[in-house]
Amino acid sequence: MLNFYILTLLFLSFASYFFGKKTIQKKTTLNQVPQHSRDTYHGFYLALYLLIPSAILILIWVMISPNIIHSLLEQKIQNTILLEDNSQIGVLRSQVISISEGIINTDNQDILSLVGYYNDISQLSVNLILVVSSISSLFLFFYAYRKINLRFNARTKVENIIKNTMIVASLVAILTTIGIVLSLIIETIEFFKIIKVSDFLFGLKWSPQIALREDQVANEGLFGAIPLFLGTILITIIAMFVAVPIGLLSAIYLSEYSNPRIRAVAKPMLEILAGIPTVVYGFFAALTVAPFLRDNGATLGLSLSSESALAAGIVMGIMIIPLISSLSDDVINAVPQSLREGSAALGSTQSETVKKVILPAALPGIMSAILLALSRAIGETMIVVMAAGVAANLTINPFESVTAVTVQIVVLLVGDQEFDSAKTLAAFALGFTLFIITLLLNILSIYIVRKYREQYD
Amino acid sequence: MTDFNTSKRLKNRYKAEKRFKVYSMSALIIGIMILLTLLSSITISAIPAFTQTSIGVDVQMDDDDIQQFQDDPNEVSWRSIQKSSLYELFPDVESRSQKKELNKILSTAAYIKIKDFYLKNPKLLDKKNTIYVTASDDVDLVLKKIIDVTLPENMRTVSDDQLKYISFLSEDDRIKKQISWKLFQNSDSREPELAGLKGGIIGTLLTMFVTLIISFPIGVLAAIYLEEIAPKNRITDIIEVNINNLAAVPSIVYGLLGLAVFLNYLSMPRSAPLVGGIVLALMTLPVIIIATRAALASIPPSIREAAYGVGASQMQVIIHHVVPLALPGILTGTIIGIARAAGETAPLLMIGMMAFIVDVPSKITDKATVLPAQIYMWANNPERSFEYLTSAAILILLLILIIMNLLAILLRRKYERRW
């Protein structure tokens, strides 16, 4: 029904564009008044006044109607069925919704009557939005139709509408940030109502799966996040040891030594690495790198776990090589040629120029590239999910299996669970920590560039 | 004036120079070698997944079955036809346990081939026909020489009896290895010989469609406002900083946003391309905004001034002159952003797009999975055959991404203009 309405609306606004255009054209042939706006603007004016009110109303309806329907349904559940505790309302609610969508069946009369009620109010809400939005659209359409004439400044009006749409579009970015921050903070506060902040930030044991039964005394499990942070840091450090030398040195080679032909081939090749999806890196780590390390480690007398931090770290390092190399390449190229020439004139070799002149000059940019790579590595999920372990070991031995913050978020949230348990909330607390850390790293990287950038020329 | 010491120092300095050059060159070579290793190891392990073994069985329908077929082909007991035609090839297999072993050399759904054959050739119903049906994945692996048959029996998934049957069949010339298109024709399955990517590919297309229609208009409009119209004040400054920060937020956080806001607060359907598309659109938005702003900024002010000079309004300058000239750059940025979104997995795991879904989705609210999520699920499957299937799926995903990126490069080459 709603789909049909939207299609009709689109068709009608299309038609009213031509209708507005025709109306004005007819008026021009009748009288000889100078015209303010071209015909097309009158057409657009009519079409937008028909379309926009319905679009806004339907958008608002999509945002708030599920919530209203759900709370009405929950009230009804409370009134019809006597529940022992309130925690079952949510379960019943989703049961009713699934029945009405035809996913599951039941023959419980009480629930069937609830399903009927749910269908009724859903239908009511759809009808309501259809009536309200069509009336307001038609009303504004006639208002707009009465206004258009040859002297009417349709162009300015249409341009204002477009400009306002653009402002709304740029607010979407702000809304996204607010959405992220709010959703993370709300769930994190819920989590800290169950688990103490100090237990989370400084606890040494992480085993959220410990709660076996609801009525168990310690049914929260243990949520000490130190092993996760340590695992993430360990994997990130390994990644940095791989990515920084390779990325930086290849950037130096590409910008200082190589001839244009090699550069034209090699630079895109490194950039291909940046375009490979992370799930592919994860598979590469699990399929090729981890067995390779394990077999070679065995011949060297090292015992590597098959989910060692080393494998995950190396592959993560490979993933961020292109990030470091292309950003460093840019900053090295931005160092003015006069510095190179001056250094050469003093008799230094090319490597001395690089080490003593170019790198110091490009250092702020390189540092900010490394910080960006660091924040990317910390937030990276698929590689560690596929190549690192799940068990939270408190260790800094790279040959052992460690887990990471992102791995635990995935482990806690994948699969159906009740939403308000400490386990799901813990995932949001971890996500919030991750968000804050990456945000700080980005701010730091911008700050370094701003503060230490040298102005040449 | 070159005494002994300076000449020695000079030599050392030249040596250091040479060393440094070698270090930096080897870093580049290592980087490229890693890329080649990655691509080749995945390509090599993908090769077995593109061929499939079939076994020819002689099928003879009895009168009851033919009668049933004419009433309703779906009601025919195809499974037992499959079994009995296999037993006919091996008359000396009699005991139950041996028959069980024998049945395992065919795929459990091999009868689909028999059914398709008769649906296509109903005239041959009463004749004896040799039909090639899908072999099980273990037989497939034996014939591709991936399972080592020299190992003791308890260390491989194929029994000695089954090996005997296989060698008998190949002597009888009943085994065919063909290039298979089932990766594109079938959707997901627990049986590796039947598992395909159709569901994942369609799911990816639907999700990318949603991502595109949300992120492209919003991103372009926002970028035009920020670059061309917005006054430089605190609010636009905040928006700018904010967009740059959003571009660096880890993708998994967008997944948490999707879970908390779209699934729990707005009760949108779980596992649906609609929600996946919205989440990826929010993630792609900063990329598109940044690329569009760069494209707009590269249009020289003289274009704008000339347009203003002939009396155009600000909106006319933007819509009639600046945006059309910047369009190649805008589209390039959009394609690259969408390609990145198409390879993204982590946020989609959060909103349930990695469930095992057999049906091919037909609309954006259906349950669906995407190609990267399917790769993740297959990679977690312990069965050996799935390793090859995963590699093949990765190859297909990379192919799609390469095509998208080539499109972006071509667009840039063709329409890029230096002012």
CATH class of the largest domain in chain A: Mainly Alpha
At CATH's second level, what is the architecture of the largest domain in chain B? Orthogonal Bundle
CATH topology of the largest domain in chain B: MetI-like fold
Radius of gyration of chain A: 31 Å
Oligomer: heterodimer
Q: Characterize the biggest β-sheet of chain A.
A: 2 strands, antiparallel
Query: Helical element count of chain B?
Result: 17
Secondary-structure-based class of chain B equals: mainly alpha
Number of domains of chain A: 2
How many helices of chain A? The count is: 15
Fraction of residues in β-strands of chain A: under 5%
Run of helices and strands of chain A: HHHHHHEEHHHHHHHHH
Alpha-carbon Rg of chain B, integer:
30 Å
Q: In whole angstroms, how far apart are the ends of chain A? A: 65 Å
CATH homologous superfamily name of the largest domain in chain A? MetI-like
Instruction: Report strand % of chain B.
Output: under 5%
Largest interface: A-B, 93 and 87 residues
Characterization of the model:
The complex is a heterodimer of chains A (457) and B (419). Chain A has helices at residues 2-30, 39-80, 88-100, 109-147, 154-194, 197-202, 226-257, 260-275, 278-299, 309-334, 337-345, 350-379, 382-387, 405-413, 422-452, and strands at 206-207, 222-223. With 457 residues, chain A is an all-alpha fold. Chain A has two domains: 2-152, no CATH class; 222-452, MetI-like fold, CATH 1.10.3720. In chain A, strands 1-2 form a two-stranded antiparallel ribbon. In chain A, helix 5 crosses helix 15 (422-452), helix 10 (309-334) packs across helix 12 and helix 11 (337-345) packs antiparallel against helix 12. With 419 residues, chain B is mostly helical. Chain B has two domains: 51-180, no CATH class; 198-415, MetI-like (MetI-like fold), CATH 1.10.3720. Chain B has 17 helices and three strands. Chain B has a three-stranded antiparallel beta sheet with strand order 2-1-3. In chain B, helix 9 (198-229) packs antiparallel against helix 14 and helix 12 (273-297) crosses helix 14. Chain B is extended. Chains A and B meet through helix 2, helix 5, helix 7, helix 8 and helix 9 of A and helix 1, helix 9, helix 10, helix 11 and helix 12 of B.
